[in-house]
């Protein structure tokens, strides 16, 4: 199976997750490559082809590129195996870490015609060494909503990598069966 993993990452963590997903897809015998999403892609459905999109949340939304990609390609993606995963901080909380309970996932799928075969959401990371002062101040506010203390002096990662691996293996199995 030829699987493209399209990645929308601002500070690199979603790209790390996309890379791990692609590694596992390859272990499962697929051809897999990671590309940065532009939103201008045109998916040509063909047997043996599949697409995964991974995107982080920034200020409440996925990138407009992700929305554009989903709107443009929804019809084509209905013919091939496809999956979407979101990455955000809110998903670090129990009760907000499923596609049904995570606000950004719900908002996206209420407004996009794309119906992927698999949807998941993973908790992201925080790395204050990368943020400008405005972003850092806003994230410290979000942190309060998370109801937990965070060490701002070092990179903190909330991602459950076992869940990422399970997602990738499950997609391999799904893609192998085709649509
Ligand atoms: C400027 C900024 C805004 C963010 N906004 C949100 C948000 O609204 N909700 C949320 O749950 N997480 C938010 N996050 C957390 C990111 O989704 C998390 O850091 C993720 O790991 C970033 O992935 P990336 O490095 O691939 O962009 C924000 C992070 C940054 C830096």
Automatic annotation (TrEMBL):
Residues 5-148 form the Flavodoxin domain. Gene3D superfamilies: 3.40.50.360. InterPro entries: Flavodoxin_dom, Flavoprotein-like_sf, Protoporphyrinogen_IX_DH. It comes from the Bacteria. PANTHER family: PROTOPORPHYRINOGEN IX DEHYDROGENASE [MENAQUINONE] (PTHR38030), PROTOPORPHYRINOGEN IX DEHYDROGENASE [QUINONE] (PTHR38030:SF2). This is Protoporphyrinogen oxidase. It comes from Schaalia radingae.
């Amino acid at each position: 199976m030829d699987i493209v993993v399209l990645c929308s990452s601002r500070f690199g963590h979603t790209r790390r997750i996309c890379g791990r997903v692609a590694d596992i897809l390859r272990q499962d015998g697929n051809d897999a490559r990671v590309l940065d999403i532009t939103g201008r892609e045109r998916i040509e459905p063909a047997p043996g082809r599949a697409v995964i999109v991974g995107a982080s949340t920034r200020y409440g939304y996925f990138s407009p590129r992700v929305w554009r990609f989903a709107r443009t390609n929804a019809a084509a993606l209905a013919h091939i195996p496809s999956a979407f995963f979101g990455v955000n901080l809110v998903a670090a909380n129990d009760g907000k870490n499923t596609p049904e309970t995570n606000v950004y996932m719900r908002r996206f799928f209420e407004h996009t015609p794309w119906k992927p075969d698999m949807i998941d959401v993973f908790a992201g990371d925080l790395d204050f060494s990368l943020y400008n002062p405005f972003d850092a101040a806003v994230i410290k506010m979000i942190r309060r909503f998370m109801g937990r203390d965070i060490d701002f002096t070092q990179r903190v990662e909330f991602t459950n990598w076992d869940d990422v691996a399970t997602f990738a293996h499950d997609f391999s199995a799904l893609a192998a069966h085709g649509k």
